[in-house]
Design brief:
Two copies of one chain form a homodimer. Chain A is built from nine helices and 15 strands. With 330 residues, chain A is of the alpha+beta class. The longest helix of chain A has 19 residues. Chain A is globular and about 65 Å long. Strand 6 of chain A pairs antiparallel with strand 6 of chain B.
């Protein structure tokens, strides 16, 4: 989900050359006021010409812009700053309020604050290369509706043709790689699995706990292949995965969100364990399926996932999206 | 997902008494500029005394504050607004930049913008009861498993006993409040509904589009009450809601995530329409149910939601969680 997070993108972009000559503006004083001592620059952005918005987030209040600064390509990132408790008194007394709506005890306003209490963090990458620009670009997603027939005629042939390599998964299952990262293993060939931390999790705190259970069975590509015969496998992963997480991280089942992705990132059955309350990327209803729901659905209808119309987002650059478009299904 | 999000907390608080006397400020003009015609209020917050910060989010740039407005308890919610593409030129030319750091091709600044280009959305709940204050307080969540029997023995009695007021919903359906916010209405008493922007959405950009469809039928508390007889109602909301959004906001169905919450914030049937790719609070798999899935499930099993075990998160201070604990179900 949060592919466009300012922080993640910013983080992942530090590909510039080393900087032997680091200069630094004078640090602002505590309350962010102008006091005449600060490094007020000539406004390098006053002549900035926007070429395009690469991405933005209404939730995080940021925007990534490609444009030109004095004939050089640049990426400018704006992000509003968090609201600080120590500025509230001044904010309330020094601002202008405009009423928008009143209903019962609820009213909403637009508040116009003194600029020094409401700054925007601004990052400039200049000169920016083609690589920077592509990196900051949002890949839009589209919701696709996949019927049973669509799966057979469009999705399955695409998966087979691409023959995405899952050699790295087999390396894990065979202990040829990442063996020391394994948190728990049930070696049973039918219902067994390997549980290990997802790469996204730094394992420094449980607040953003993220583990993956990878089935030993190699013939299940995704949710679409599941039938009632796989219920014991799913139940085993669910039950033993929860127990292993309680034991290792002291996190009870009531704090876990356990789910499968459809479409998955790779076509070998795996299950996601993330902490409830952590906005894990990909935990949205449009892509995630709670394992508890999957088990119930298969118990009451063995062919549930073979026959059901499924919905999922595909990014604009996903080859599968082109296939759906070619088939007139979008 | 984001338990501390301004948005969900705001959503989940609609428990106020009826409002016979609904006043309303003049709607702001399109580009958010001052033009002398707007309803500039006396600053009701200039004398606001903060008692405590109930919660805040550095990621979403919001803060929930408990305090006093003229001796009355109030909750004030501040949230910075998304950065709008159409204001960028004026933002760059009209702002002051302060250099913070320069390293190689990367530099960061603090940008001080003209106040009308950098507003803070402000919501006031006044007078606020102890219940409001508790509700806005940051709280941990727990995943609850609710069987058919749990619903009958624990959840339903709790809902009935609490008799949460939905008078504000009836005000909307009867045009006693928010009538000018209505985007679309189908007045049919059986399958009709009112579509209007959610409070969380400032309607300035479609990136975080969030609308709510409220059914005219008054006897459906939640997902649990739905049977196959409600399929025409759900299909009508889904279809006409998508059409209205395409017409008004030029956003096609492939960019929409349409879902119900279980548990809902209020027990009158309503459907959420949010933009795909916008991490809307409450769109996580643990609380959201795609309307397309709900329709399919009811079509193949009329009693699906009456009989199924459902999973949902409850906050630590939710009375329903205590009931599940007392019953030994957590």
């Amino acid at each position: 989900m949060a592919d466009t997070s300012a922080k993640r993108l910013l983080d992942s972009d530090k590909t510039g050359e080393p900087a032997p000559d680091v200069k630094r503006g004078k640090t602002d004083n505590e309350n962010g006021r102008e006091d005449g001592n600060e490094s007020v620059q000539e406004n390098v952005l006053s002549g900035f010409k926007t070429s395009s918005v690469l991405s933005d987030s209404a939730r995080e209040k940021n925007i990534f812009i490609h444009g030109k600064v004095a004939d050089q390509d640049a990426v400018v990132i704006l992000e509003k700053t968090p609201i600080r408790e120590d500025s509230l008194a001044e904010l309330f007394s020094g601002s202008t309020l405009k009423l928008e709506m009143k209903n019962d005890i609820y009213s909403t306003y637009r508040l116009q604050a003194p600029p020094h209490l409401n700054e925007i963090k601004t990052t400039v990458v200049c000169p920016a290369t083609e690589k920077h620009i592509k990196k900051y670009q949002r890949k839009e997603s589209f919701l696709v509706e996949e019927t049973e027939e669509d799966y057979k005629n469009i999705t399955l042939p695409h998966i087979v043709k691409q023959s995405f390599s899952v050699q790295w998964v087999y390396n894990i299952l065979e202990k040829k790689a990442e063996a020391e990262r394994i948190v728990y293993e049930d070696p049973d060939p039918d219902v067994g699995f390997v549980l290990l931390p997802d790469f996204k999790w730094d394992q420094k705190q449980v607040d953003d706990l993220y583990l993956i259970a990878i089935a030993h069975q190699r013939d299940i590509k995704s949710l679409r292949d599941l039938t009632s015969e796989h219920v014991p496998l799913l139940q085993n992963i669910f039950q033993k995965g929860k127990e292993a997480i309680l034991q290792r991280y002291n996190l009870p089942a009531s704090k876990l969100r356990v789910y499968l992705h459809y479409q998955p990132s790779y076509y070998h059955l795996h299950v996601h364990f993330t902490k409830l309350g952590y906005d894990a990327p990909g935990c949205g209803v449009e892509r995630a399926h709670l394992i508890a729901d999957v088990i119930q659905n298969l118990q009451s209808n063995p062919q549930y996932y073979k026959t059901r119309t499924l919905y999922f987002p595909l990014r604009a650059d996903d080859g599968l999206l082109s296939k759906f478009k070619e088939a007139g299904r979008l």
